[in-house]
Prior knowledge:
28% of the residues lie in helices and 27% in strands. By secondary structure, it is α/β, with parallel strands linked by helices. It has one domain (2-260): Nitrilase/N-carbamoyl-D-aminoacid amidohydrolase. The strands form two sheets. A six-stranded mixed beta sheet has the order 5-4-3-2-1-12. Strands 6-7-8-9-10-11 form a six-stranded mixed beta sheet. Strand 10 (202-205) and strand 11 (208-212) form a beta hairpin.
Amino acid sequence: xxxxxxxxxxxxxxxxxxxxxxxxxxDAKVTSRAGFVVLPENALAAPDTGPLPAxxxxxxxxxxxxxxxxxxxxxxxxxxxxxxxxxxxLDQVAHLLDPAGEVQVVVRRPVDDxxxxxxxxxxxxxxxxxxxxxxLLGPDFWLVEPPRIQCLAGAELLLVAGSTTGASADSQxxxxxxxxxxxxxxVAMANGLDRPSAGGSGIAVPDGFLAWAGxxxxxxxxxxxxxxxxxxxxPDLRFQETLWFGLWARRPELYESLVGGQRPSGAxxxxxx
Length: 273
């Protein structure tokens, strides 16, 4: 059985100092049992500081790749700002590194004029030796469809480079467990501690939270067993042992009503205002 490590921390005065600090934390906490290591959205700097300098970006990838090789782990680098391919703005970019330190997945999302990461429509799912894994950035995770799409594609664990909102941190904490339950999936979510993010990183499965960082700077960890998720997804018509209905019980004939904004036949009328 492998372990998941989730890093939650405050950014330092500059991106180089942040990188040095987080690598010190990870080097001290991550063990040879690591299967996954997850860093947050805006891992080294906020988008309003501009794109991460190429030399620092390459250094971060090199040091995180070395961590992956050292422990034989998959590492979600968190995201940072890079110039978009069109040269017209910034993208938030996250990488999933494999145990050989090679880039396995890249997720790229545009940053809007307010400095916020936007959502996308590509939701990668990859096979690993520790189960089938989906990779998400925070803005996609908080939507209903992206986690569902990845779980229907077989994802047993969602790795999320995320961010919370201080005003609704408790609700978002509860929502992480809700997403894990409704989709019968594990969730490993790393959030930052810099405004507007308010921490709340954690590792959840349908049974509850295995680890939670609260609002403290820490690297939390928990054992990861993909066989438990596979068991919960097995059919059980008595509804006593598994949660298979959470992911697989669907009514596709209702999709047209959802997309078209029409009420399904027999739905109650609202009271209006």
